[in-house]
Design brief:
There is one protein chain. With about 280 residues, this protein is α/β, with parallel strands linked by helices. The chain has one domain: Vaccinia Virus protein VP39 (Rossmann fold, 3-Layer(aba) Sandwich). Strand 6, helix 7 and strand 7 form a beta-alpha-beta unit. Belongs to the class I-like SAM-binding methyltransferase superfamily. RsmB/NOP family.
């Protein structure tokens, strides 16, 4: 990390001693945003990269409020709200969230769909698929199908079926070290390589399921270039029919770094990195 960040490393390291930012995302399937903001007993400030996301203060406890159990909002990491926003789901489309548990991104996508179309929310692990199903129900999503399948099995049955696909890929979890000590204990260079290989398999399956001209959004919760710039570049080498689409970056979002991977793909600078020392994530 020191080699990657250079002079910025001190600021990155210091960010881990700062208070953690927490956020919730208002569910428009259950309430109007303006109404909620008038009634909510929390101190809220807008998350800039999503319409319905709001930071709450350390004194608030929204997880204990009846609104949470009723699905009026979803408690979610601020950074986790970004991928679904860039998917840009529309009502009436067919959308796949390929690695969907626990359901935050799926429910966010469903809000954009406004009850029209189909969202398939898949999770390979049965216990996590059960949690995913419970959250989809709690959030009032009526146009979802929850599946417990491998990406390979889905790709055998849904060739060129989906308008948009989100792959929030299983990863080495470097961005989760402060939140989850197990992620730190499980990290190793070998695990990074194993995750990158798994990501390649998942992305290849996603490519088979996407309609020509569709949108594929890939995200991780790790800093490792092998799993980010590397996974993207290798995917584009295998699938030259895909290209990186430039999107608007909000203040504090940083570009991907082509120099961090061998054989960088064209347009890799248009990808987005979220660093804890650059924004409230």
């Amino acid at each position: 990390m020191k080699e990657m960040l250079g002079e910025e490393y001190a600021a990155f390291y210091a960010s881990y001693d700062l208070p953690k930012y927490q956020a919730l995302r208002i569910n428009p399937l259950k309430t109007e945003r303006d109404t909620f903001l008038l009634q909510a007993p929390f101190s809220l400030n807008r998350v800039p990269w999503t319409t319905n996301g709001y930071y709450y203060s350390g004194n608030d406890q929204p997880g204990r409020h009846p609104y949470h159990e009723a699905g009026v909002y979803y408690i979610q990491e601020p950074s986790a709200m970004a991928p679904a926003e860039y998917l840009m789901a529309e009502p009436g489309e067919r959308i796949l969230d390929l690695c969907a548990a626990p359901g935050g991104k799926s429910s966010q996508i469903a809000c954009s769909m406004q009850g029209e179309g189909l969202i398939v929310c898949n999770e390979i692990h049965p216990a996590r698929a059960k949690i995913l199903s419970e959250n989809i129900e709690r959030m009032g999503v009526c146009n979802a199908l929850v599946t417990n399948e491998t990406p390979q099995k889905l790709s055998d049955n849904f060739r060129e079926y989906f308008d948009r696909i989100l792959v929030d890929a299983p990863c080495s979890g470097e961005g989760m070290f402060r939140k989850n000590e197990d992620a730190c204990d499980e990290w190793s260079p070998e695990n990074v390589e194993n995750c990158a290989a798994r990501q390649a398999e998942i992305l290849d399956c996603a490519a088979e399921m996407l309609k020509p001209g569709g949108r594929l959004v890939y995200s991780t919760c790790t800093f490792a270039p092998t799993e980010n710039e590397g996974s993207i570049s290798r995917f584009l080498e295998r699938h030259p029919e895909f290209s990186i689409l430039p999107v608007e970056k909000k203040d504090g979002m940083m570009p991907g770094v082509p120099a961090w991977t061998e054989h960088p793909a064209d347009g890799l600078e248009h990808t987005i990195r979220l660093w804890p020392h650059h924004l409230k994530r």
